[in-house]
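Memo to structure team: turn this sequence into structure tokens by end of day. - J.P.
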Amino acid sequence: MAMPPRLVPLLAQFDFARERLLDRLTGPVRDSGNGIRVPATALTDEEYRWEPVAGCWSVRRRADGPGPRATLLTGDRAGAWGRDATPPPHPEPAPFTTLAWRLSHLTEMFELRTDHTAGSRSRTRDDVRIHGDAAPAVAAFAAASAAWRAMLTTVSDQDLDTVGYSSYPHGSDPEDVFADVVWWLNQELLHHGAEIALLRDLHQARTGG
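Reply from structure team:
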């Protein structure tokens, strides 16, 4: 099946953003922003869970319970870790979220949207494993985003125009044409990837790394 022409630039944008984020998280080099490759270090556990301000939302050991203003830890309850959350309405002002929280959020969105597009359409946030350490969290993001990308290569032009092609329950997907969902996931990757990169810069400036 030929790839729909309007999907081509969206996949190119996705690939560019995903590669830049993974390089930023793993090293040994990354794009400096102007095409020059510069040294990059792998994300450490301390940096992954770093809370730059008081009252952060993060990932936490289930035995410790949720953080400030959170009422639950979302994620696979068979795992030792969960991510700070609360049912709507969410706290205002919104809590500052750590790099771990943001990376876990991205992984969850890719895992669940892939399932609710071309899988069982039944998985929930309680099925997504939350990782307390950097290396498995980065690996989980890499796998989830790769699965989403692979699924997109099977999509037809008609699928892109189908309302509810993704049944992901934590957004407007059931009311949206799938092309809009693809665009939305790209912007989620772009803006959370930029946030994660900035948190790395701040941590390294703070520690002199």
